[in-house]
């Protein structure tokens, strides 16, 4: 058996975001010779299971996100001195400032997924960005293997640090619900969007474009979580063709929207390969994505792209059924080749 410790997530069963879904599926699809122990935030679980998907769960009394993510990750690494895994898989760079000390007292190999250039995100202040950039540089230097989820980030690591790295994305096929097909109406003529409501996800560009066209839009997001989101909702909820929906975490409910929409809008401009994008690609729905290197790599340059609201307006006013059909088929083909959990698990286990 090869023992893998996972550091840097809220934990499993998955209840938060992309990294948690990653660990959920890595443990579910693991080979028989792989054994996982996963560090979990006790603050996020009312019921603290001893194991899940065959993985041992170890709880720590700290939050896995925000400023507490730093001591949370460091404490997880300290615990690894006792549990003695063969490999430590670190997801994110928050606690990687501790890696030089960890490596002094542990023989475990370290694989770090550095996430999506977190220090570039608009939501962080000046000093938080400096810290995250420093943690990133330490993570790259002291990890035995660096994983990036997008080739554009891999190219950055090669250029910035002259460090070899592996690109391993995310699976998206867990979003499919074949047993529910009879419960979902046939394709409806509405566009769909889904994301956290943050400036870097360009929600404002998408809403501005749809305020100038007749096509319907249903957009799911955490509108009440910030002043930015509340302002957008106040401004655009008045349009008859725009429906702004509060967060939906139930994959069955999301499946109904994904399965019945005729177009998907993806506005992310940072973060690498986005889980919500690769999930949507499995539905064979045409995708209009914000024009950046991350999205072009994820969609193999075969989606349609917009750089501002005026370009998106033009795209929406000149929809071509043949082009849309081709776009959707290409997205599904790419997803089935690159973004299944069976393939992602194979790549991670190859890295171990």
From TrEMBL:
One of its GO terms (molecular function) is transferase activity. SUPFAM superfamilies: UDP-Glycosyltransferase/glycogen phosphorylase. Transmembrane segments: none annotated. InterPro entries: DUF1972 (IPR015393), Glyco_trans_1 (IPR001296). Signal peptide: none annotated. Keywords: Transferase. It comes from the Bacteria. Residues 1-173 form the DUF1972 domain. Residues 195-297 form the Glycosyl transferase family domain. This is Glycosyl transferase. It comes from Vibrio variabilis. The lineage of its organism: Bacteria, Pseudomonadati, Pseudomonadota, Gammaproteobacteria, Vibrionales.
